[in-house]
Design a protein that fits this description.
The chain is of the alpha+beta class and 202 residues long. It has helices at residues 9-94, 97-108, 134-146, 186-201; strands spanning 113-121, 124-131, 151-165, 171-183. Strand 3 and strand 4 form a beta hairpin. The protein starts with 8 loop residues before the first helix and ends with a helix.
Length: 202
């Protein structure tokens, strides 16, 4: 017996292929959504982790900035303390400067020159007096330049010829001078002597 299929088998096959294709597309769509969701979730986790790291770094940076400010404050305090210490040391070392000044003037002022006044302003000494001649003044300037470490940079401000009455009948011609020089600090004298001592030791 011969069986003949009179049903529209081509349409049924086409319908099955269509349904299979739609199911495949739907499954692909779902799979794509799952993959996209997984990728999105992974990126969100990465962003959240990086944000946590950034927040931690920001907090650590703030801590470090606070420590840096404290260190800067401490450095300023140390510098101020060193400046005070140096000022105290300078005062202690310079307390004998008037003695050195008087001692050097006695040694360096030649005979025939006399001091009438001395005035100190900071490290600058202004001195006035009279000398028997201009040569005495020149000798005094040379002595103040070359023969003492405590006095430096002598400068003759003024020299004027004048007369001094020795008695009612006798007058003497003298040179009135006005000069200034610098009184060296103890630390400066020590610094200047150290290279000389080192050179002598060699």
């Amino acid at each position: 017996m011969i069986l003949i299929n009179l049903l529209p088998h081509r349409e049924a096959a086409r319908k099955r292929r269509k349904e299979t294709f739609q199911a495949t597309m739907f499954a692909s769509f779902l799979l794509g959504l799952v993959i996209a969701g997984a990728i999105y979730w992974w990126f969100q986790m990465m962003i959240a982790g990086q944000q946590e790291k950034n927040a931690f770094l920001q907090s650590e940076i703030k801590v470090l900035e606070g420590q840096i400010k404290e260190i800067a404050t401490i450095e300023d305090e140390i510098a101020a303390l060193k400046a005070r210490q140096k000022a105290v040391e300078d005062l202690q070392s310079d307390r004998n400067l008037p003695v050195h000044l008087m001692n050097e003037l006695v040694q360096q002022i030649p005979e025939g020159a006399y001091i009438s006044s001395i005035k100190q302003t900071g490290q600058t000494i202004a001195m006035t007096g009279v000398a028997q001649s201009n040569e005495r003044v020149s000798e005094m300037l040379r002595n103040l330049t070359d023969n003492t470490p405590w006095l430096s940079k002598p400068e003759l401000v003024e020299i004027v010829a004048s007369n001094v009455s020795l008695s009612q009948r006798e007058q003497r011609r003298v040179s009135s001078f006005n000069l200034r020089f610098r009184l060296m600090r103890t630390s400066e004298v020590k610094s200047a002597n150290e290279p000389a001592s080192a050179a002598q030791g060699k």
